[in-house]
Amino acid sequence: MTDEELLERAREARKFAYTPYSGYQVGAALLSADGQVYTGCNIENAAYGNTMCAERTALYKAVSEGVRSFTKLAIAASESAPFPCGACRQSLFEFAPELEILVTWDGNVRKTTLGALLPEGFGPASLGK
Ligand SMILES: [Zn+2]
Q: CA-based diameter of the chain, in Å?
């Protein structure tokens, strides 16, 4: 799967975003080590604290199906760069500390890594696991 194909899956997933409050729509496509793609969108709620990000939606879909190893994540938005929030960085670090991350918005693409976004992250090794 090419980077552009994974980015396109994230753009497609964004179409399902449920964002009646912020209007900020995000799609994510998470590539597993065995080559499967798990997509997610952000899902808002009238009780704002219940809102879920696109990245964790994709991650939790995968983990709930028994997949725990990931290589790359693409995230798509429109008007501004959708770098993952702190909670998503932490959740992703649990399963993929070496994750490559592609971010796209308004015709732009940026490549980074989870290690760059969350240096010295707290993970299973922190607990001796
Ligand atoms: Zn997030």
A: 42
How many domains does one find in the chain?
Answer: 1
Nearby residues for ligand 1 (ion, Cβ within 5 Å) = 53, 85, 88
For residue 125, report the distance from its CA to the centre of ligand 1, in Å. 23
Would you give per-residue pLDDT tens digits along the chain (129 residues)? 999 999 999 999 999 999 999 999 999 999 999 999 999 999 999 999 999 999 999 999 999 999 999 999 999 999 899 999 999 999 999 999 999 999 999 999 999 999 999 999 999 999 999
Annotated catalytic residue: which of 5, 55, 79, 98? Answer: 55
C-beta of residue 76 within 8 angstroms of C-beta of residue 7: yes
12 catalytic residue (yes or no)? no
Closest CA to 79 of 115, 110, 104: 104
Range of the domain at 123: 3-127
53 Cα: distance to centroid of ligand 1 (angstroms): 5
Q: For the domain that residue 94 is a member of, what is the CATH number?
A: 3.40.140.10
pTM of the complete model: 0.96
